[in-house]
C-alpha cells in the first residue's frame, strides 16, 4: 500500500506497520485477530497458517545429507537454509 507523503499515519502496535490514521482502529482489530508475528523470522503470518509456515520455512530437514554428503554433520538445516544453500550451489 502506497501512502501519500502528506497523509497522516500511525504505527500498528501489533504488526509495526505504518497505517493511515483514519483506518488504524479497523486495521488493529483485524490485524490482532487474524495475524501473528512469527517468533523465528518476524514475518506476519495468518494465525490459521502458522503451523504450515513453521513447517515450510523453519522445520529441520534431512535432505542436505542426500545432496551434500560432505555436510553430514550439518544435517539439521531449516528448509529456508537448505533452499538458500541448494540454490547457491546449483
TrEMBL record:
Domain of life according to the entry: Eukaryota
GO cellular component labels: mitochondrion
PANTHER family: TRAF-TYPE ZINC FINGER PROTEIN-RELATED, XIAP-ASSOCIATED FACTOR 1-LIKE
Protein name: Uncharacterized protein
Record organism: Solanum verrucosum
Amino acid at each position: 500500500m502506497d501512502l501519500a507523503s502528506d497523509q497522516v499515519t500511525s504505527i500498528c502496535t501489533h504488526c509495526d506497520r505504518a497505517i493511515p490514521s483514519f483506518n488504524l482502529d479497523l486495521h488493529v482489530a483485524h490485524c490482532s485477530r487474524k495475524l501473528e508475528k512469527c517468533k523465528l523470522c518476524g514475518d506476519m503470518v495468518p494465525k490459521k497458517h502458522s503451523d504450515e509456515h513453521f513447517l515450510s520455512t523453519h522445520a529441520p530437514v534431512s535432505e542436505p545429507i542426500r545432496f551434500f554428503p560432505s555436510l553430514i554433520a550439518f544435517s539439521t538445516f531449516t528448509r529456508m537454509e537448505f533452499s538458500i544453500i541448494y540454490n547457491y550451489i546449483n
